[in-house]
Amino acid sequence: MIAQIIGTLRGGGAERVALTLHRGFKKLGVNSKVYVLSSKVDYEVGDEDVIVGANINKINGDFIIAHMQDISEKVKGENVWHVIHTTPTFRFKEKNFFSRLKHKKRFKKIYNNKNIIAVSKGVKNDVLNLITPKNIKIIYNPFDFEEIRKKAEEKMDLDFEYIVNVGSLTKVKNQALLLKAFTKLDTDLHLVLLGKGNQENNLKKLAKSLGIEKRVHFLGWQSNPYKYIKNAKLFVLSSNVEGFGNVLVESLVLNTPVVSTNCPSGPNEILVGELSEFLAKVGDEEDLASKIQKALIKYPKIKNEYIEKFNYLEIAKKYLELR
Question: Hey, what domains does the chain have and what are their CATH numbers?
Answer without folding.
Answer: 2-142+311-320 (3.40.50.2000), 145-306 (3.40.50.2000)
